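Item description
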Amino acid sequence: MIGFLAAAASHPPSSQGAQQAFGYPTLFLLVVLGSLVPVVPTGALVSSAAVVAFHQTEPVALAVVFGVASLAAFLGDVALYWLGLRGVRSRGGSRVLHRLHDKVEDHALERTQRQLDEHGAAVLVLSRLIPAGRLPVMVACLLAEMPLRRFVKGDVVACLAWAASYQLIGILGGSLFPEPWQGVALAVALTFTIAAGPTAVRRLRRPPLETPGPGH
């Protein structure tokens, strides 16, 4: 998908209509999939799509990318939360909740639960802006059995802010380089660097292992 987006912007404007007819639905499906199964780099996809839109001649291209990305992220989040909430309220438990819980570290979940108790649904907005923050917040909301309607209200703002943030990264990459592929490369590098930030910080904060002295 990212390679296609970079190639699409290098074609003449006459072919942009066909490219957009393929690119926008693909972006939508991949962002929905990435929201349901957090293995697709959705942030990198949105940033790359924004680079391509920045270099296109149609002025509404960036607005369409923003709308497609935010709507897809929202629908994916709501679908995943609905599945988890449905399982929480059943006698047999929730396989979705168990899978999500296995991907969240205990200390991160405990911190998120405290934040949810203090700030309520407002935590949802930050959950999508902080790398690796979405799943702990979703699990905490499921464990607290937050009503779907309340989750939806918070997630709307979260998805809009998320799409805007990664689109700004794409616009930055598109404005710094004349060739679209260069902007895509920068946007992808920035999004992966941002995503890897929390892991790097945790490793730096982790105390070094003590080496046993003589006689131990």
